[in-house]
Design goal:
This protein has helices spanning about 45-60, 75-85, 100-110, 210-215, 250-265, 270-290, 320-335, 360-380, and strands spanning about 70-75, 95, 120, 140, 145, 150, 165-170, 185-190, 200-205, 230, 235, 295, 305-310, 350-355. It is α/β, with parallel strands linked by helices and about 375 residues long. The strands form four sheets. A seven-stranded mixed β-sheet has the order 1-9-8-7-4-2-3, sandwiched between helices. A three-stranded antiparallel β-sheet has the order 12-13-14. The chain has a two-stranded antiparallel ribbon with strand order 5-6. It binds pyridoxal-5'-phosphate (PLP). Pyridoxal-5'-phosphate binds next to helix 2. Belongs to the class-V pyridoxal-phosphate-dependent aminotransferase family. SerC subfamily. It is an enzyme of class 2 (transferase).
Length: about 375
């Protein structure tokens, strides 16, 4: 093996974090000047901004007209937990998990809500076989496992005529992957992911069947105000028209609007998906050309195009965790890649965010640096 030379080019933007993710290309605080700061979010100007955020979300993601879209507190976690606490308990539940966040939802349902759920887990790098799932139960799963880089390839195995609800945490998928709306009853995501927005707010998207459940089912447990979506057995429609349950950050709303408008300018959902696929493709090409690194996803059909997770396979490496950490640290110190270490609960390796705000040219420029850092750490063993 030869010493890797210091690469000539650097990524223009070294931000490859899997959340909060890189801001849109060309971002500047000046883009937020229209934020109605110091005004009530219930004033016409605030309400119009919130409604615009909902409308643009629908337009770009292609959300069906009869699905509700709400802006809720607590980022993606808030949106998922609002759904779990409000909807579950009416029928049996299956929980699917193949990485850390999915496992978190299992904990919520089994340990906190104390539901006797069927739990199906797959190890990091693999996915639960959807053919084994009973979709006449309520099924909770994560579309893209951000910490394992494994995603649901498509919705083909989810029956259109299911009687249970599908509750899908799509936070690292929405805006970068196709989501089959007819197969999904609840979809959640946060602004801080694929569009590079800010934390704090979550999006909760409900199918007509999910709304029917909300209006017909009263959970056996108490619901805090922050989770309540019905009043007197009827959906609070205002929540889905921009009348948020509590006070949102109008700065974050403005930032989300700016990102949505950028998304339109790059071709909407198609353009966003193409950007992520091109970046993930650049990583895949690099991995295919080197025998000391591989994708954590065992089946390429399930390999994420946003949170691309890699592991080092060189037999000279004895302490995988220390090695991967040292590589990530070297890249960070060099200023060519920030936040690319694997998630704390995931197998050791690198995680390179390829979501739609990341420039493919930057991903391409990073690849030789990974080789450079790998060679340097091997030499130091
Ligand atoms: C799959 C998944 N679910 C939930 C979360 C939590 O998101 P938030 O911090 O926006 O609540 C994350 C964050 O990385 C995630 O990747």
């Amino acid at each position: 093996m030869t010493d890797a030379k210091t690469p000539a080019a650097r990524p223009a933007n070294p931000r490859f974090s899997s959340g909060p993710c890189a801001k849109i290309p060309g971002f500047s605080y000046d883009l937020l000047v229209d934020a109605p700061l110091g005004r009530s979010h219930r004033a016409a100007v605030g309400k119009a901004k919130l409604k615009e955020a909902i409308d643009l979300t629908r337009e770009i993601l292609g959300v069906p007209a009869d699905y509700r879209i709400g802006i809720v507190p607590g980022s993606d976690t808030g949106a998922v937990e609002m759904a779990l606490w409000s909807l579950l308990g009416a029928r049996p539940v299956e929980m699917l998990a193949w990485e850390s966040f999915g496992e978190g939802w299992v904990t919520d349902v089994v340990k906190q809500l104390k539901l006797d759920a069927t739990v199906r887990k797959a190890p990091y790098g693999e996915i639960v076989d959807f053919a084994t799932v009973d979709f006449d139960k309520d099924v909770v799963f994560t579309w893209n496992g951000t910490t394992s880089g494994v995603r649901v390839p498509n919705g083909d195995k989810i029956p259109a005529n299911r009687t249970g609800l599908t509750i899908c945490d799509a936070t690292s998928a929405a805006f970068a992957m196709d989501l089959p709306w007819d197969k999904l009853d609840v979809v959640t995501f946060s602004w801080q992911k694929v569009l590079g927005g800010e934390g704090a707010h979550g999006m909760l998207i409900l199918s007509p069947r999910a709304v029917e459940r909300l209006e017909s089912h009263t959970p056996a447990w108490p619901l805090p105000k922050i989770f309540r979506m019905t009043k007197g057995g009827k959906l609070i429609e205002g929540i889905f028209q921009g009348e948020t349950i509590n006070t949102p950050s109008m700065m974050a709303v403005e930032d989300y609007l700016v990102a949505l408008k950028w998304a339109k300018s790059v071709g909407g959902l198609k353009g966003l998906i193409a950007r992520a696929e091109a970046s993930a493709g650049a990583v895949a090409e690099f991995v295919a050309a080197h025998d000391w690194i591989e994708n954590l996803a065992k089946d390429p059909a399930t390999a994420s195009t946003t949170s691309v997770c890699l592991r080092f396979t060189d037999p000279r490496i004895t302490d995988g965790a220390a090695f991967a950490k040292a590589v990530a640290k070297r890249l960070e110190k060099e200023g060519v890649a920030l936040d690319v270490g694997a998630y704390r609960d995931a197998p050791p390796g690198l995680r390179i965010w390829c979501g739609s705000t990341v420039e493919t040219a930057d991903v391409k420029a990073l690849m030789p640096w990974i080789e450079w850092a790998f060679e340097a750490e091997i030499a130091a063993l």
